[in-house]
């Protein structure tokens, strides 16, 4: 037996060595599912399976690259190169480049990103004269996306009275028409959106049996990671391709299914045994990733879900520290706590930044964390959010390049036909769009044939349009011989885009120029990298495809050491020694949008399970009492998920202060109720711990709540009440002095003090650190 097999435990070896036929591995987080998949591929190759016959589908392209690297270590780099590995989208985009022509697509079809799709949809909604407040383009896009992922074509849509009625009920009776227009326009532009990459693959495999047969024969072994998050469209592709040889291996964890809002269907896992005959079922139980405390805490959470497969997860790893829970008054304070804690841990244990991750429910939470990390000079990287390639200046340059590859690309054309300004206005563009729709041609083709159509465009504008077309064509000619970098640099200059930002001269303009430079550097790297691959040319088409399908994690080159910031959704499959899960508050996590049904709440709980199980050594959960949301400061309550963790795995860093004194008000602003103490029925008594005082924010809030109450008991200054004019005092910073005068009452009480060093200062007694001598 080869050595690498011994890097697996017995339970893991079984699926790796499984003979032909379908198999499924269902197991909890960190139990080695991804490792099993990787080693199985290496094993198959060592058994003589040709690498050309293996297809592996992963959650990110980065995961695919890492698996490939590991496999290369085992079986050798040259063999590993031939493996088809990547996300569903990137793998099937590649397939459609070969065979999409059968569906009428050019092999150089453009991939529209979300922004392109949304722009096109808002243009269509406008052209149809619809109310954009009712037909919100994002909602419309979501609808169309979910139709496509359920394989509901326009025709199928109209044939389904339930769908038509649902849209009519939602006051969107013209959804079907929008859908039809959108599909037509994408097709005419030689473009596919993300969902098309799956939908068209399905169409191709269904309508062309010879194509299906070809790929069935090619992909004799198919392996899918994170199977719990496949949608219907993906499920059907896998089913079709594996139908002949039935060598399908899927691994997943129903407890980590977190993409149902995007159409992921957990029943794909649940029905696997019905879909295939003689399924080899494997379970893994030992977690290698995390400490006992983390594994057990995660188990205690997920057991609250009623809808789940029975699973055991245990670990022989150390018990590890307890999960630390921390409360802050505001989100800014939360950021400071996280940054401070990362800083301390780094210093104490000499850890690299890459050992830390901060995970949140929504992207907007990153700002407070970022601010705090910057103040501490801790380098970080944000994954997700607006990607580099979606920045305006970058998209402008990319749009020129897209047009070079595919001049029909309508969204690219509309972006740049008048950028930099060349006197081609909106009304001209409108006329061109109408003509393009009328003749069923692309806008570019219309411009190219202006002489033959009577469009009521004046001769000056016609000439400008002619110049534009001539420029793009000159780029196309260059593209026949130049590599991607040479072409891109030429285009950035000759199109005038670079000059436009240079002329601008503002810091923003310069920043944009620098970004374009960064893009060109990236293209150069890409060209160098592609040269090493046998079947790649390093041309701009390849680069654009890479960009279009880059998932948010793919930018990570891993060459510099940074703290990782990302949403929990994106963190699936990853692991970090130290993990901070921030914003553990009701309405944020679980999200207010996802608490309407039990199944939504269960998905939020699975999301929490995913978050916690990313941690290897230490997990922190933080929450705030007040948070800015939608520009307003709102009260926040700790997330129910904190309470759901068995308390023996938790250490509260900010225990609730309760004391023997009678609170003046019934609202407890000093902290939430200490639930663990309540549960244990312990009396809430004793004196407040020293040094725990409400901060300014809390005081302000308290004053606002009950202004007439004046100074809250127990929270005033530490100064002796006997302090009076003439008293001798000592101040920590200014030294000895004598009180000249006292004025004001309550929180405003001030003392004028003449210090021995000579200064006279007026101090607010509430803050002054004075000792009466
Ligand atoms: N037999 C083993 N011996 C040592 N380490 C292992 C073993 N199996 C897995 N690991 C390590 O445990 C960690 C978790 O493994 P892996 O990522 O494959 O788990 P997973 O089940 O895919 O997790 P997730 O559900 O989060 O995707 C990895 O660091 C992996 O290298
Ligand atoms: Mg995994």
UniProtKB/TrEMBL annotation:
- Per the database record, which ranges form the UvrD-like helicase C-terminal domain? 292-573
Which PROSITE patterns does the UniProt entry name for this protein?
Answer: UVRD_HELICASE_ATP_BIND, UVRD_HELICASE_CTER
Domain UvrD-like helicase ATP-binding, residue spans: 6-291
Residues the entry annotates as binding ATP = 27-34
Question: What keywords does the record list, in alphabetical order?
Answer: ATP-binding, DNA-binding, Helicase, Hydrolase, Isomerase, Nucleotide-binding
Q: Which protein family is named in the record?
A: Belongs to the helicase family. UvrD subfamily.
Q: What is the designated name of this protein?
A: DNA 3'-5' helicase
Taxonomic lineage per UniProt? Bacteria, Pseudomonadati, Bacteroidota, Flavobacteriia, Flavobacteriales
